[in-house]
Structures are given as structure tokens and as C-alpha cells.
Amino acid sequence: MTVIEKAQGFALTQALNYISGSPEKNLPKLLELIEIIGGKSFESRARAFHAVLDDPDGNWYRYIMNLWRDIDGDVLKATLRNFGLYASIIGAKKQEENVKKLGCNIPYAILLDPTSACNLKCKGCWAAEYGAGLNLTYDELESVIGQANELGTQFFLFSGGEPLIRKADIIRLCEAHPNCQFAAFTNGTLIDEAFAGEMLRVKNFIPAISVEGLEADTDFRRGSGTFRKVERAMGLLREKRLPFGISCCYTSRNTEYIGSEEYFDQMIAWGAKFCWFFTYMPVGRDAVPELMATAEQRAYMYGQVRKFRETKPLFTLDFWNDGEYAEGCIAGGRRYLHVNANGDFEPCAFIHYSDSNLREKTLLEGLRSPLFMAYHDRQPFNDNHLRPCPLLDNPGALTAMVEASGAHSTDLQNPEDVRELSAKCKHAAKRWGTAADALWGKSCCAGCRDGDLLMKKDA
Ligand code: SF4
């Protein structure tokens, strides 16, 4: 990080100190400062922020004020500086420059698996397929983060396995990289008083806790008693004024509840500040294809997420149905990539194929490998960005890339042939193709209506 970038971070922190006394009055002044730093590339986002600040009754205005009310002041400042300024403005500019200079994708975020071990055994989860004994060393994690910083990447997420099995190393990384933002997909059961204290100390770590609805659905997939432990963890984080989100996998079994107003209100009541939605992917030989959401359920989620974005103070992302905002698939380093606990560079957490490993190649060499370049050259995989995925929505696309690049399955227990995996998605891809083509190109409201109609028709 350059001296100028550090000075911008300092200026932002000072501005945030000033705002804390009266966010309602002072936030517009902060926006003016960010506009100066962000320049042209921030213009459209600045317009959106101005619209939010001009509407005190709107859900986004309430959301911003809730952040100031509910989150520890120093943690909030570190998050806004690291995530808002260093990752999303300064880092994004550097990534864009490097894409042009280096001719490959440069990620906005990197997902790292410190371990394949987990303290739970959830139904349909692939974590066990890598074997429970794989770990990235602290030095390997540190090396990837350092290399990524050079390319402009400042945002790192941990998954697994259960990443908090390595919580001491995670905190050490947060401490070693105070200008980076860290997050983790976690089952939440290992969050305790001591860890919350460490989060308060380092200030740059945010958990996204996996919850699959209420007690019956969460415990169905994650095991009896899990839901109560998760509720305890959320209570502790709320009490310490620490930010957290929810990571939610919608399946054929729980979609109607996950997309309901009751559940959105429940997440807000728990104190979550964001929810990342995923849909179930039948990855691995032990996968349960019956858990895949139907096209009607996916259309329902499309409508519900958009509807509540207009009314609820909760930031949500649906990793499949929001392809239109990212212009398709974000994998292969276009916005993110995955490093599994064996050190393989994978295009995405759901794509278990690789042709490079951090023990043999640098991050940049991984980004320039045949598999990652196939992603770079072929994205988007569909002109309809509601069908972004080369596996779930366009199964032939993944097969072609894996076969052309010579990538191998990274499933160490039971390697899965890409044609067999893709075959499991064919029926769902066809059904969703019809629904998604009907939704594509319509305004948000028409889309929402169509989503509801599809749901009713099926019922
Ligand atoms: S490969 Fe599929 S699941 Fe992964 S980022 Fe792309 S669209 Fe999403």
C-alpha cells in the first residue's frame, strides 16, 4: 500500500470520527470525501448513495443508521475503511489496471480454506470429500494474501471445512493485515466469548453464519442442537456490538421459508447485517440431487430477494440469481477464486477442478493457467445473466473448459468426472433456462410478478 493510499485511509478514519457524533447530519460530507478519492470509477455508486441519503424513510437509510447504532465504532470504521475504501475503491482500480496489463482475470476477493476438517457433518456437504486432514499452513495463507495484495486484492474470505477450527491463525492473519477485510463462512458453533474478544481487538473480521431457516431445517442438515448453538453465537455477537451476516443455502426443502417475509424479519431480529444466499449444488459423489431447488423455487427467490431489497434494512446477495449485477459468473478470478485446503486454485468453491496448486505455482501463474484463462476467455457463459453458471445453468460449458484445460478433479476421496457431474444438472438447467428467459429483460417489478406467477402456477 502506497503512502498516499494510507493517507487516504487516515483521512477517511478522521472523517468517520467526526461523523460518529451525528451520522444523520454528517454522512453527506463523508460521501463528498469518498467521491473525491474514488473519482470517475465511483460516480455511479456515488449517485446511488446520494439517493439513499435523500430518503430518510427508506430501508437503506434505516440500514445505514442501524450500522451506526448496532456496531462498535472502531470496528465499523475499520470495516468502512478496509472494505469500502481499500478493497472496493483503491483495490478495484488496481485490479482493473492489472487486468489490462497482465491479460488475465484479477480477483476482487479470494476464498481460502485453511482446513478441510469440520466439527459437524452436514447432509449434502462436500467438505468431507477432500478428506478431513488437509490444511494450508499459516505461511501459505500469508503468502497468498501477500501476492494478492500486490495485484490489488484486499478482501479475503475463509471457508472449509469449518474455518474457525483454525481461529488462532485467522486472527493472526487479521492482525498481520490490518488494511485487509476478512470474513468467514462458518457454522458459528465455535464462536465464544474469547473469540468475540479477539474480533473486537483486530476489528477486521466478520463471520457469515450458516443458518438454514429455523431449528427443524437447520438441525435437519447440520445435526441436532446446532441451531441453539448458532442462536447463542448470534446473541453474543449482538451483545458485543460485532457485525455478522448469515449464509443461507436454499434447497428443495426450505426455499419457501427462506424466501418468506417472516424469515427476512427473523434475520433482521437476530441482528444480521447481510445475508448471502446460495442454492444447493449436487457436487461430489455423496451429493443429494433431490435437494436442488426447482426452477419455480429459484424464480420465487428471484422475486422475493428483489422485493425485500426495496423494503427491508438487510443487505442481500443471491449468488446465482444476482448474475445480472455482475454480468454473469464471477469465478475463475473474474471477481473471485477459491483455494482449497490442498492448495489447489479452483475457479469457484463449487467447481472442484484445478490445473494448478499454490505449492507449485504463484497466484499469478494460477490466474494464467489454462483453466482460469478458459474462464477469462469464455465469460459470460450465457447472454442471459440470470443463467450465469457454467455448471448449474450451462452444464456443457464447464465440461468443455475442464476437458480443454486438462484440469483434474480435486475431490481426493472420490474424484468426480465432469461429465457425470454436469449430467446431474442438465434437467435443472433446462427447466431454469425456460423460467430465466421469461424473467430476463423485464424490469425488477415485472420480474418479481413473474416469479410469483411461476410459483403459483406450479402450486
Ligand atoms: S461457477 Fe457457478 S457457482 Fe461459481 S461463481 Fe460462476 S456462476 Fe457462481
Task: Describe what this molecule looks like in 3D.
The chain folds into two domains: 3-95; 104-366, Aldolase class I (TIM Barrel, Alpha-Beta Barrel), CATH 3.20.20. The strands form two sheets. A nine-stranded mixed sheet has the order 7-6-5-4-3-2-1-8-9. It has a two-stranded antiparallel ribbon with strand order 10-11. Helix 13 (295-309) packs antiparallel against helix 19 (444-458) and helix 16 packs antiparallel against helix 17. Helix content is 52%, strand content 10%. It is globular, with a radius of gyration of 21 Å. The longest helix has 30 residues, at 73-102. It has 19 helices and eleven strands. The chain is of the alpha/beta class and 459 residues long. The N and C termini lie far apart (55 Å). It binds iron/sulfur cluster.
Topology (SSEs and partners):
Elements: H1 3-20, H2 23-38, H3 43-53, H4 59-70, H5 73-102, E1 109-112, H6 138-151, E2 155-158, H7 167-176, E3 181-186, H8 193-202, E4 205-210, H9 215-222, H10 226-239, E5 245-250, H11 255-258, H12 261-270, E6 274-279, H13 295-309, E7 315-318, H14 323-326, E8 336-339, E9 345-346, E10 353-354, H15 363-367, H16 370-378, H17 395-405, E11 408-409, H18 418-439, H19 444-458
Parallel strand pairs: 1-2, 1-8, 2-3, 3-4, 4-5, 5-6, 6-7
Antiparallel strand pairs: 8-9, 10-11
Helix pairs in contact: 1-2, 1-5, 2-3, 7-8, 13-18, 13-19, 16-17, 17-18
The structure holds iron/sulfur cluster (SF4).
